[in-house]
Amino acid sequence: MAGGTGGERTLIFSQATRRLRSACIGRVMATTRQPRIASSILLGCAYFVICAGTLRLTRFDEGVAFLWIATALLTAWLNTRPFQQWTAPLAACAVGSASATALWGLGPQMALPFAAINMFEAAVGAAFLNRLAPHRSVLDSHRWLVIFALAAGVIAPFLSALLAASVLSLGADQPFLRNALNWYSGHALGTLTFMPIFLLVMRGDATRLMKRMDRRKAAEFCALVTLVAVVSYVSFAQDRLPLLFLPMLPTVLATFRGGALSTAASIVILAVIGGTLTFQGHGPIGLIDAPLGARMQFLQLYIACAMLTILPANAELQQRAKLFRQLRESEARYRVLMENSTDIVINLDRSGRLLFASASIRQISGFAPEKLIGRRIGGLLLEADAERARASFRRIVADPDRTHVNEYRGVIETGDVRWFETHSRAVTDETGTVTGVVSAIRDISNRKAHEERLARAALTDPLTGLANRRGLDEELRARLSSGSGGCLALFDLDHFKRVNDTHGHAAGDEVLRRFAALARASVRDQDLVARLGGEEFAVVLPDATISQAALVCERLRQTIAEVGVQAEGALIFVTVSGGVAPYLRNQPPEEVLRSADQALYKAKHAGRDQLALAA
Question: If residue 442 lies in a helix (H) or strand (E), which one and from where to where?
Fold first, then answer.
């Protein structure tokens, strides 16, 4: 090896690694296989004991057993294992079934067929459960209960009853229908009655439930099952009165108080005590004038009815307990969120009155939550927004499947007005009827202030602080859509390029700012002064006649010509030309601007430093 090439050494090392890995895997598999084989042998022994007991005690007419519990044990075992691990348990239980049938059943000639049928029944029931209700807790839902009843109580025993009755009819010349009915009732009842308790034990649910019990719960569980046992014994030990109803009372109590474990235990206790005493000829069923087999079949019907009464109730209780736990968890999460959130959460009834307000409302608005309960939400809003909020509330109630987002102004405790954004959704009951509205509310005052600053910036000329061209357009459209009319004046600084060329752009900017200040001082508060760009300005004079506008604009022109601007160490004088045009309500803004611009052109063409009126 030392003399081999590098490739040979690598190949030899790789082969050795694979052999070592295979040996380790094989040893691990052998180690895990041994406990499985041992548990399968123990299962086969338990299956044999149960088969032998039921065959010895419940064969009344030399046919099949009237009660069969062994399938419940095997089906529960298979239901807790993956399909790949079914071979050994089925083989061990097949041996147990064949042995019991050969010794105490229908003899060696029927041992193998019946063993195969029993294995087939357990495999079918477990396969259906594993396929349709995998990894579900026992008796925890109506879905599991329905699947369990169909798989283990209807389909599997029905198929095996057909096969068993056919084998007996052909091989032993026994009546088909009687054996089919006896087989089906015995196997279905035995599986439905005992499989839940086997599942609880094999899945570890029983141990887990018992570990969760404190002393008080453990004592209550013991008292409940003892009560079921005592009442069942009293009812079936006497032969005078038809007291079959009596065991149902403690069984129902055990279901409501003890949960799944006491429910399964109560059914088993009732079946064992009732079956034993009825077999001995005691109890209310013993009063029936019929053979023992018929009385045992009636007992099976009685236990089946009890089980179908108790198990759905337990499933419903388990679901409600689960929902209650989820509700408590949800409430805990909700409280954590509410106590640490800066948003306000409120609940309103159908009339808009406050039912709940989170503690954060005190921090944001200054109002104590408890003092707001019962008040209408509209009373906390600015009057101008209250009607809009009421209309929105009606829309939320009318459309409960959508989240509605709105913005309102609210009045806080200090009297200040703040902006709030609401995300609201209707609350419905189980019938879909709207019972109220829940809203998450956020203070957006800072955001609205920022938006307002941005809006003003978008409409404002940064150099002069006047409205820009966009601001002029919006104001002019607003004035033309309302009011009775007015005038629009356009101004242009004469030979402004010379100012920039001679004194610099800083001096030119100062001249523009000076004109803006003088224009604002010359007009009324309701008038708007705007800079359209460069050295061009506009003045909107609502409700002014053409003569009134001309006086205002002429005064502004003269003021500009007389007042010099001190900039860059020089005194700068400028003149301005202007054009004034009247406008009427609903007149197109482009037409008004064109008329004023034509008047301005007329003034500039006539020599500048003058005012012209639109024709």
Answer: strand 434-443
Single-letter amino acid code for the residue at 432: G
Strands 434-443 and 417-428: antiparallel
Helix (H) or strand (E) holding 125: helix 108-132
Instruction: Assess whether 307 and 375 both reside in one domain.
Output: no
Q: What is the dihedral of CA 468, 472, 478, 483, to 10 degrees?
A: 130
For residue 572, the Cα-to-chain-centroid distance in whole angstroms is: 73
> What residue type is assigned to position 522 of the chain?
S
Are 419 and 446 contacting, i.e. CB atoms less than 8 angstroms apart? no
Nearest-angstrom CA–CA distance, 291 and 286: 10
Taking a C-beta distance cutoff of 8 angstroms, is the pair 312, 145 a contact?
A: yes
Distance between CA atoms of 38 and 23, rounded to whole angstroms? 23
Residues 543 and 488 in one domain: yes
In a domain, 410, yes or no: yes
- With contact defined as beta carbons under 8 Å apart, do 89 and 78 qualify? yes
pLDDT computed for residue 2 by the predictor: 38
Q: Which of 66-75, 299-308, 367-376 has the lowest mean pLDDT?
A: 299-308
CB 270, CB 303: distance < 8 Å:
yes
pLDDT tens column, 466-496: 999 999 998 899 888 887 789 999 999 999 9
259 and 111 in a single domain? The answer is no
- Please say whether the beta carbons of 391 and 405 come within 8 A: no
**Structural domain for 352, as ranges:** 342-450
Q: Is residue 22 part of a domain?
A: no
Domain identity same for 440 and 301: no
Q: Do residue 398 and residue 313 come from a single domain? A: no
Could you tell me which of 440, 468, 598, 487 has the C-alpha nearest to residue 533? 468
Question: CA Rg, the chain, in Å?
Answer: 47
In the block, tokens 């038809």 appear at 242
Report residue 517 as tokens.
């200040």
Integer Cα distance of 371 and 376 in angstroms: 12
H or E segment and range at residue 611: strand 611-613
Burial of 543-582, coded b for 16+ CB within 10 Å and e otherwise, reads ebeeeebbebbeebbeebeeeebebeeeebebebbbbbbb
Q: What is the pLDDT of residues 139-193, one digit of tens each?
A: 667 788 889 889 988 999 999 999 999 999 988 888 899 889 889 988 998 898 8
Looking at residue 292, its amino acid is L
**Residue 3 pLDDT exceeds 70:** no
Are residues 323 and 348 located together in one domain of the fold? no
CA nearest 441: which of 351, 360, 375? 360
Instruction: List, in order, residues 6 or more apart from 317 with CB less than 8 Å away.
Output: 255, 256, 259
Which residue from 366, 360, 364 is spatially nearest to 346, judged by alpha carbons? 360
Query: Is 172 in the same domain as 228?
Result: no
Measure the CA–CA gap between 266 and 466, rounded to whole angstroms. Answer: 89
C-alpha to C-alpha distance for 235 and 257, rounded to whole angstroms: 22
CATH of residue 357: 3.30.450.20
Confidence (pLDDT) at 20: 54
Report yes or no on 19 lying in a domain: no
User: Is residue 585 located within the same domain as residue 480?
Assistant: yes
- Residue with structure tokens 């808009």? 352
Q: Is 155 helix (H, G, I), strand (E, B) or coil?
A: helix
